[in-house]
Each structure stands twice: as C-alpha cells, then as structure tokens.
Predict the structure.
Amino acid sequence: MSSSNSRSNLIKALVTGGAGFIGSNIVKLLYQEQHEVVVLDNLLSGYQENLAPFPDICFIQGDIRDEKIVNTAMQGVDVVFHLAASVGNKRSIDHPIEDAEINVIGTLRILEAMRQHNVSRIVSTSSAGIFGELKTLPIDELHPIDPDSPYGATKLASEKLVLAYGKLYGIQAVCLRYFNVYGVNQRFDAYGNVIPIFAYQMINHKPITIFGDGEQTRDFVNVYDVARANYLAAMSDASGAFNLGSGTRITINHLVELMSQTSGIKPQVTYGPPRPGDVRHSLADISAAAKAFGYEPIVDLKTGLAEYMEWAKVALKEAE
Ligand SMILES: NC(=O)c1ccc[n+]([C@@H]2O[C@H](COP(=O)([O-])OP(=O)(O)OC[C@H]3O[C@@H](n4cnc5c(N)ncnc54)[C@H](O)[C@@H]3O)[C@@H](O)[C@H]2O)c1
C-alpha cells in the first residue's frame, strides 16, 4: 500500500456496473464534480432508471465479458471504477459458472482493454467475503483470507488479477473490500442484504425475522461514504487492497430499533434459528484507507437509515 497525492483535473471515468446500487452512487458523485462519465452495464441486476437523473452521461448497455463492447467503452478513459459483478453468496451458489465468468473473466476483459488503451488507473471492487470465517476484530488487511463461497473466491481472484496487472503494466490499482453497504438505490431483490429486506418487510407491515438472538454485530457503511472512498482513491496515488466499512458496528437488534425510530414503523419481530455460516461479529479496521487516501466516513447510521427508509417508501410505492 502506498499513500496519496491529490489530482484535481477533470477526468473521463468508465463506471462498470454503474446502473447498480453502488455504481449509480459513484456516477452521481462524478457527475456532481463535473467529470465525464461512461457507464457499461448489462442490467443483470442494475436499473437504467438509476441513471435517469444524469442525462449527459454515456450509457452503454453491454456485458463486461464482451471484448468489442469493452474496447468501445474504454476509448479515451482516464480512470476505471470497476463494480460490475455477479453479486452475493447466494447468487454464486445458485449460478457458480456465471459468477466466475463475470467476476473473473469479466475483470480480465476490463484489464486487457485498459492495457490496450493505456488506461493507467483503476479503482476496483472487492468484498469482505474474501475473508471467510472471521477470526479477529477489527478486521485489518492482514486478516487471514479464506473465502467460503464461490462469490468470495471469485472476488478474491478479481482482486488479485487487478493487483497483478498493476505490478505488470504500471497500472495504479486500488481494490476496496466493502463490508455491508446500504443506502439509496439499494433494492429489495432475492439477493438483498439485511437492511433492504427489513425495510421491505416493515413498510409492507409484514413481520420481520431475525436469525439467532439478534446480538450479532455488523459494520454497515453508507453508500455515500463508499462513493467518496472510490473518488478519493481515484484522485490519489494510492495502490493496494483496503478494507472499507464504517469502522463501527451495531447489533441486529439495535439496527431494527433504529429503523423503527427513523421510519415511525413498529415491526413485529420474530426470532429464527441462526443461519449456518453466518459470522457472529464483523467490523472493519479502516485506518489503512484513512492513511492512504484520506478516507473518513461521515454519514452516521441513524441519518443514513432515515434517508434510506424515506427512499424505500417511495421506491416500493412506485413498484406497486
Ligand atoms: N452491496 C454490498 O454490500 C457489497 C459488499 C461487498 C462488495 N460489493 C461489490 O460492489 C459491487 C457493486 O455491487 P452492488 O451492491 O451495487 O450490486 P448491484 O447488483 O446493484 O450492482 C452490480 C452491477 O453490475 C452489473 N453487471 C452484472 N454483471 C454484468 C456484466 N456481465 N456486464 C456488465 N454489467 C454487469 C449489474 O447489472 C449491476 O448494475 C460489486 O462488485 C459487488 O461485488 C457490494
């Protein structure tokens, strides 16, 4: 890991997976900062309406595994934000071949196109899923890596490929290992995380189920902070892999209380048996990202949840 200097010029950015939850929030930040943005997304799990507020960007509907389309998207690009992926443990167990093709071969297609087009900067997306069973808290970059799902394994392969291309071809490469990201544009599909699942159930006045005693803890980081981390990393000279969370943790019981307080909805809570493979506690050590590119989360959970619950109410109404 090396540390930062600042770049301030306007850039042309390619955001793969830019129609997705986190990608669209990165697009928003780049757009606000007046950078030129190209999005490459095949809408596997993304939504073109996420990009509706940004009419001036270039949207290419296509697959990162498609060499021709990736080469078209790479024309004149300064920085790649690589988020396109088959996302989540469950999807990877249901569709392991597709997971590997997108997360490994797709990443290689992006890297090969970068090499051919002399693009020298990438901020790529890894996951806390690469660690597998958690052994120490907080989780720093030296925590043992031992993924226990196809998704964790392919995100690790993707991370290693990005860093290897960095060494081989002088590409400045940063991989950000996200913990539990939540926030605006996070929808409620079958592969969703706990916050959108609870939001969906609460807004629809359905009971919510907590697996285990609810005293397990998670590090929830707001998508605005994740978007800023991507931006700061891109504008710095940092390279290497960094853990990215909020640096704080909360129990699932407390999370439900906060979601209830911020939305004014009192859910009926039931408790189910703990899910096999679920870790008891999770917390990111974010000091390396702070040192390397000045990352500092600024959205506190209560404020972020209030904003998310408001967004979710509208999104669910529109989907009816
Ligand atoms: N949400 C989290 O908590 C979390 C945690 C760790 C890592 N991540 C990583 O963050 C990134 C973004 O995830 P997200 O939560 O925004 O999910 P998402 O599903 O909303 O975003 C993924 C995007 O990639 C696109 N995509 C998928 N396959 C593609 C392909 N072959 N070609 C082009 N586009 C393709 C999808 O259509 C979607 O827009 C992913 O790389 C994911 O692994 C997310």
Residues 1-7 have pLDDT under 50 and may be disordered. The chain is about 40% helix and 20% strand. Residues 12-182+221-245 form a domain with the Rossmann fold fold (CATH 3.40.50.720). Residues 96-116 form the longest helix (21 residues).
